[in-house]
Design goal:
By secondary structure, the protein is α+β, with helices and mostly antiparallel strands. The chain has 10 helices and 22 strands.
Length: 441
Amino acid sequence: MTLYYFPVSDSPENVACSFVKEPYTLWFDSARAGHTRNQFSYILFSPSQIFKNTSFEEQKKILSSVNQEGGGLLSPVPFCGGLAGYWGYDLVRTQEDIHECHQQDKDDLPVCVLGMYDEFYAFDHLKEIAWYVCNAGSRQDADKKFLMFKGRLDQFQSYKPEKEQEGEIKFISDFSQKEYESSVQKIINHILDGDIFQANMSRRYQAAKPDYFDPFFHYLKLRKENSAPYSAYMNMDGFHILSTSPESFLSVDKEGWVTTRPIKGTARNSEDLQKSEKDRAENIMIVDLLRNDLSKVCTDESVNVSSLCHAEGFEGLTHLVSVVEGQVREGNTSLDVLQAAFPGGSITGAPKIESMRIIEKLERSRRGIYCGALGWAGYDGAVETNIAIRTVICDDRNIWFNVGGGITISSDPAQEFEETCLKAERILNSFGGGDHDCPDR
């Protein structure tokens, strides 16, 4: 198999609209203009295989079994084909003992779904150039694939949902304010007892899915109102993922250079955030955790913090972001890096495993896709993933999303609850009804 690419003129939105009704079409959407990490968007379609509930060890074998040639020209984009989809938070159960909770998986979704993608559309936002990229056995085969792709685009018409999208969708939280604050206090007590340094506590909003609701049409709305550099839309054949995540999890280039950008700390403006000793301490603890995770698979001298606690603004929110980097040690792969750091420390706590056990006891349901990772692992070893926060999921019956925050010894339970309301606000508003409060259980 050899990599071929062809220049095209269509926009990411038009291409997505042309393919999105096909199962396992994925749109990795760098929707936030001007962000330093928004260069590439991808629309992946027609996977040759689908893998569900595979462990990291199985994924490594799948990628290593495929013989790929680089072709005569370098790829114009970082992704050159490979595995793509999602790694759910609960995939950690295959490698760590965190079975402390009696809650069952309410969603009954696969813990991990990955497709093998050999053709896709890519858009370079900085150069404003688009490409059709494919792996094929010959130039003749590649030409045929490209003509089929262009034929689909030539038939494109503006996307219209099958039914009128009207009405207000009411969400219910699985915690009341009092219940959430009580759980936050329990985490603080664990910190005072010396069990952990911090933990991330979340709660879920859920609503019945109306017959008229079109998930892709709603994603188009979300990406305009709540744009983010690590957004994604996934048609997973029976359920849909609508993510406007501001947070990168792991990025690995084909030379093995790793970058992770943890977000800890949230406020309405940068001034308030920079004054918060609690948010800064929270961020620094997660940076130390990630340095430890990367040291398992990277050379010791390469692991470094290139930026600590700088502020980045998003629609209605400002976050503290740090950057940790490293060089993959010889003998390890990018999937070894993903496995070593999974799930991201910014949404678990420190120490990671003990924090996850405490979370298990307190949260009302398994996290599922939430706080896992959406992204891809390429044939050439490159990886790009987000942290699946600000992520709406819907199936035939329900629509749901989670919001949470990091709890430290200096946390105030009432303020922590308000932070979850702040994070939920923009998602709730996208479903209509004007101003939303945080509904009680």
